[in-house]
Design a protein that fits this description.
Elements (H helix, E strand, L loop, with lengths): L3 E2 L2 E2 H32 L18 H12 L3 H13 L11 H7 L5 H7 L16 H8 L9 H11 L3 H12 L2 H10 L2 H11 L3 H12 L2 H7 L3 H25 L10 H20 L10 H27 L6 H7 L3
Antiparallel strand pairs: 1-2
Helix pairs in contact: 1-3, 2-3, 4-6, 13-14
Organism: Actinoplanes octamycinicus
Pfam families: DUF6192
Protein name: RacO protein
Length: 336
């Protein structure tokens, strides 16, 4: 079966390619000639033209605009032809390389490098020929390609499309819904970048409080967080504030207390008890369904023993006025 490309056979396609390449070469020669004509009217100079500024006559822009208008092309097109012609002397132009490739490579500042590079076309993956393509020329000069192939080229193309913050946010959200993408992105993101992203998400105090509570339930996180002096100070201050609030709540709920003058220590003690009960009521329901190792269970048991000992000590101090703990109790409270 004869292969077809579009609506023609391979043989006819090859014939059309050969004819069209001749036309492209002729078109390139025409563009260079028009550029040379524009250069003759206004050669490239330090100020963009040959006439000193003090001489009368048309300026460079006006002269080129008039020339373009008289021959029926756009002024910007004429300026482009003129510039490309100025970058490629006649003996450095390649008849087998299209004009638009000359235009792309013309941006290479070093003339020797520019002239050498155009004679070293890459091998095209599709055909195996050594020919310049638009994207290959763009790669050589560091421009964004039309059809990205490498990861970096695709990333640059996406960045160009998501320049708007709203679009970028929507795209990022959609991409992070793909588990593999989210996992890999997390691995390639620095700690500081992750912290910055979290800060953006927890601007609302209610959300921040919930996240902080959840994170501090992780023992290692809590331990590391408390190594920060400022964080530890603020936590202690918050606990003291909660204790005072608990004390005030007890006084409001117990009318008899409103008529009795108590020492600050008594109120602090009542507040501490209320705070402990409230904390337990908040934390314990969240333990449902969680499994703990034997070491973790042992740690909890040790701390519960300290809590019971502290409760017994408080009860004895209130009943008898004896506040000095026994030696064994003191060691237990100290965690020994």
């Amino acid at each position: 079966m004869v292969a077809t490309i579009g609506q023609v056979t391979q043989q006819r396609y090859d014939e059309l390619v050969a004819q069209s390449r001749d036309l492209v070469r002729e078109h390139g020669r025409i563009q260079f000639k028009l550029g040379d004509n524009a250069l003759e009217i206004e050669p490239m100079g330090r100020h963009g033209g040959s006439q000193p500024l003090q001489m009368p006559g048309l300026g460079v822009t006006e002269a080129l605009r008039m020339f373009a208008e008289d021959i029926g092309v756009a002024p910007d097109t004429m300026k482009n032809w003129r510039w490309v012609a100025s970058r490629w002397p006649v003996d450095q132009r390649r008849d087998d390389v299209p004009f638009h490739i000359h235009r792309l490579l013309a941006s290479i500042a070093d003339a020797d490098q520019r002239f050498a590079l155009i004679g070293e076309p890459p091998v095209l993956a599709r055909t195996g020929e050594r020919r310049w393509s638009e994207d290959e020329a763009k790669r050589r000069v560091g421009w964004q390609v039309t059809r990205p192939e490498t990861v970096q080229e695709k990333v640059l193309a996406v960045h160009a499309l998501v320049d708007d913050d709203e679009v970028a946010t929507r795209v990022a959200t959609d991409l992070l819904r793909r588990p593999k993408v989210a996992f890999k992105a997390a691995g390639e993101t620095t700690v500081q970048e992750k912290v910055g992203a979290v800060h953006e998400l927890v601007r609302d105090d209610e959300v921040a409080s919930q996240i902080a509570t959840d994170l501090l339930r992780r023992p290692e996180v809590a331990a590391r967080a408390m190594t920060d002096t400022t964080a530890r100070h603020l936590v202690n201050r918050a606990q003291a504030d909660q204790a005072r609030q608990g004390t005030e709540l007890i006084r409001q709920r117990t009318p008899a207390l409103q008529h009795i003058e108590h020492t600050g220590e008594f109120l602090d003690l009542v507040g501490a008890c209320a705070q402990f009960v409230a904390s337990a009521g908040r934390i314990v329901p969240g333990l449902r369904g969680q499994n703990y190792t034997e070491d973790e269970k042992a740690t909890v048991q040790r701390n519960l023993a300290r809590v019971r000992a502290a409760a017994d000590w408080i009860e004895g101090a209130v009943a008898t006025g004896q506040i000095t703990p026994e030696e064994g109790l003191a060691r237990l409270l100290a965690g020994e």
